[in-house]
Structure formats: C-alpha cells, structure tokens
C-alpha cells in the first residue's frame, strides 16, 4: 500500500491501516529513536508515544506538504529529542549543577559510542569526513543545523550545504534516482 | 527566482527535517505548488531520508506493537450510561442498531477496500514470482547444457593463460575434434570499451583461423565457430565485429592443445 493511500485510511480512523503502518514503519522509526536516546527501554517508550501521537494527530498531516513518512519521522524525532533533553537535564542537575558543558560532553560521547554499533557505518563511510560529521549529528543524533553550527563552529550555510551534499552522495546507495 | 540556487542552498533538506520557522515553511510550500522541479527535488530528499531510515532500521521488541494496538483500541471504548424511560430506551436501541450497522458497514467497506488492494498487490507479486521462475528455469537449462559439454569425454579441455599483456586473464576452450565443436568458458578477462571485442583464433597448420568474436563478462559457455585440426588457441583484442587476421600485439591469451 503506498503512503498516500495509507494516509487516507488513517484519516478515516482505520485500525487495520494503523496495524499496517506499524508493521511497515516501526523498525525504520525505532532505528532513528534508539540512536538518539540510546537506552532501549526509553526508546521503546518513545516509539509507543510516537505511534499514539501519529494516530491522534493524523488529521494534521497535509499531503501537499510532503510524504507521510517525513511527517512521522519528524514527529518521532521531536519526541526522541525532547526525551533526550529532559533525561540529560535531569542527569546534569544531579551530578553538577554548575557545569554547563556536561550536556555537550554527554552528547559527544554518544557519537562515538554508537556509530559503529548499529549498522550505520556502511553508509557513512561513503562520505567525506565533514559530510559524515554533519549527517551523523543531524540525522542520527537529532541535532538541529544551528546546534551543529554553534557547537562545531561551522557557519550555518556550510552546515546546510554539507548536509545536502551528504544526502546527495548517499542517493545512489539508497536507490534514489 | 533561480531554482537551481534555491535547491542547492539546502533549504529543502532543512524543510524535510522540520527545521524551518513557520514563515519559511509557508514559503517552501508555496514554491512547491509553483515549481515542479522543486517538488521533484523535495521528493528525492524525502526518499533519501526515508530509505536511510529503512536501511538502518532496528526492530523494536514485539511488546511495543501489542501495547500500541491495545492503546488505540482502548481509546475508542468510552461508553457512558444514562437513565432513560422505556420508549426512550427503545428509540435509543434502534438508533444504536442503526449506528452500529452503519459503523459495521463502513468498517467492512474499508476492509473490503484494503483487501482489494492487497489482492492486486498479491497478483503483482505473483507475476513477479512467475517471471523470476522463468528466468531461473532458463538459467538451469543453460547450466544443464553447459554441464553436458563439460562431462563429455570427447571434448578436449584447452587451458589458455594470460600473456604479458594480461597476465591475470584466463579462459578455457572445450574442443571436440570429431564434431569440430568449440566452446569457450571465460574465467577472467578485462572489460573492453564498446568499440572493441575479443576474438578467438585457432592455430591450424601454423596459421591463425577465426573462431568468432565475443564479449567479456559472460558466465556460461559460449559456442564458437567450428574448428578442424587446431594445434593451439589464442585470443586477441580487435575492433568490434572482429578482424580478418589477428592483431598480434594485442594477444591476451594463448594455450596449446
């Protein structure tokens, strides 16, 4: 079933469509979530929240604006990022209220911990170093482009074009023509 | 507006990742309606993001599915009771029955639509399978006929090794002296440009005789021209279609019978 048909059925509150949606897209979305929040228990909570929110908010999805998956991806990413921040802020408050850098250090650790463990490497090693950094932080770690620009001291325009080049260079490997 | 510049600024990637402010987003939506090129490019960006997620997918544990589906079911079972008179109850009952049948009809309609769609995708899948099956069958036929030649004791196996031009190349000739049939099996040969082809030569009475042209990359046995009384076989690189006499300096393979 293609995504536009699926969206129509979901807007009709069709539960079978919801089951189909889960069966076909949960692993894609879960991969995104688990790379951002790392902890599997937390990631599963986020995934569940994401699907319930998709079901609740499907009326807001506008096919004119893009694909259903893109809409779900962003909704899910936002939940994962919110979760990561609330968790990290708690941890920061517990350990050291004065140290503003902990947030950054935590995130930097995650980058190294995770990157080769969950099958991302084979895609990223097709890219140049600077493109790899940008796509890893933005796509797999949930940074915004402006956060990357600030933390890595790269002009925002450059971050944007690097992300674009990275995705273009991945197209062939991803079967997009 | 310069569309190429607009696209290469990376604004569509930012849009797809939901990073634009709502006014910037509105502007992109307007442009999507106006310029098909932008719409097409956005589609590619979205597919890249989607396929990247698919390729790096991780399966969640099965409990998540159960609780998502259960939560969706629960959400729709909010029933509230009210004190009603008998006739009101009767009206309520008939209205309920009507409503329930409406809902059921609707739900069956949806199921039917869904099933119909599934059926057509199954038919398509079935066709694909049939095609695959035919291809595999063809391949097996090929392999079987190749195998018959390989195990036929009347075929002599002549191993041709790479010359200094192509030390890593290797191929085999299967030659039946009685029927004069010649088959070629390529083990390893460099790719050639489209204007060139390989040509097999048999050395008969000290002179090269054309045994046919071929391309590299063929996995099965190639039937070549019939040859009588060969003492050796060799392969050269020739212009597409082959030459009358071999270009000796391009000699790739050579093997004595």
UniProtKB/TrEMBL annotation, chain B:
Coiled coil: 119-153
Cellular localization per UniProt: Cell membrane; Membrane
Keywords for the protein's UniProt record, in alphabetical order: Cell membrane, Coiled coil, Membrane, Transmembrane, Transmembrane helix
Domain spans labelled Anti-sigma K factor RskA C-terminal: 90-247
Membrane topology listed for this record: Single-pass membrane protein
Parts of the chain that traverse the membrane: 86-109
GO terms for cellular component: plasma membrane
InterPro entries: Anti-sigma-K/W_factor, Anti_sigma_zinc_sf, RskA_C
Domain of life of the source: Bacteria
GO MF terms held by the record: sigma factor antagonist activity
Matches recorded under Gene3D superfamilies: Anti-sigma factor, zinc-finger domain
GO-annotated biological processes: regulation of translation
Protein's name in the database: Regulator of SigK
């Amino acid at each position: 079933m293609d995504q536009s048909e699926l969206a129509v059925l979901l807007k009709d509150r069709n539960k079978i469509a919801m089951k189909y949606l889960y069966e076909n897209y949960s692993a894609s979305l879960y991969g995104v979530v688990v790379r951002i929040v790392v902890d599997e228990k937390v990631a599963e909570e986020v995934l569940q929240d994401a699907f319930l929110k998709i079901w609740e908010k499907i009326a807001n999805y506008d096919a004119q604006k893009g694909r259903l998956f893109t809409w779900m991806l962003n909704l899910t990413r936002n939940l994962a990022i919110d979760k990561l921040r609330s968790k990290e802020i708690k941890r920061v408050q517990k350990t050291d209220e004065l140290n503003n850098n902990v947030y950054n250090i935590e995130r930097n650790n995650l980058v190294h911990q995770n990157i080769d463990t969950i099958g991302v490497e084979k895609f990223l090693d097709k890219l140049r170093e600077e493109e790899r950094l940008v796509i890893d932080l933005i796509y797999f770690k949930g940074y915004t482009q402006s956060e990357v620009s600030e933390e890595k001291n790269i002009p925002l325009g450059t971050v944007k074009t690097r992300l674009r080049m990275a995705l273009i260079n991945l197209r062939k490997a991803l079967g997009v023509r | 507006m310069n569309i190429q510049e607009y696209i290469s600024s990376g604004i569509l990637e930012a849009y797809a990742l939901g990073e634009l402010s709502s006014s910037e987003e509105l502007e992109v939506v307007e442009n999507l309606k106006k310029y098909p090129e932008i719409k097409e490019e956005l589609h590619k960006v979205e597919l890249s993001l989607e396929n990247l997620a698919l390729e790096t997918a991780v399966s969640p544990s099965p409990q998540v599915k159960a609780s998502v589906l259960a939560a969706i079911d629960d959400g729709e079972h909010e029933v509230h009771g009210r004190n009603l008179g008998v006739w009101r109850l009767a009206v309520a009952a008939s209205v309920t029955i009507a409503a329930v049948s409406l809902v059921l009809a609707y739900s069956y309609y949806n199921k039917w639509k869904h099933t119909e769609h599934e059926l057509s995708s199954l038919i398509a899948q079935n066709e694909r399978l049939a095609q695959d099956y035919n291809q595999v069958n063809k391949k097996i036929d090929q392999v079987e006929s190749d195998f018959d030649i390989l195990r036929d004791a009347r075929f002599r196996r002549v191993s041709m090794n790479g010359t200094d031009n192509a030390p890593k190349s290797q191929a085999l000739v299967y030659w039946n002296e009685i029927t004069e049939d010649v088959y070629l099996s390529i083990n390893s040969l460099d790719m050639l440009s489209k204007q060139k082809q390989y040509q097999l030569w048999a050395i008969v009475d000290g002179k090269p005789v054309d045994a046919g042209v071929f391309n590299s990359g063929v996995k099965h046995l190639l039937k070549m021209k019939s040859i009588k009384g060969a003492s050796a076989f060799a392969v050269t690189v020739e212009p597409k279609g082959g030459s009358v006499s071999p270009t000796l300096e391009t000699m790739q393979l050579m093997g004595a019978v």
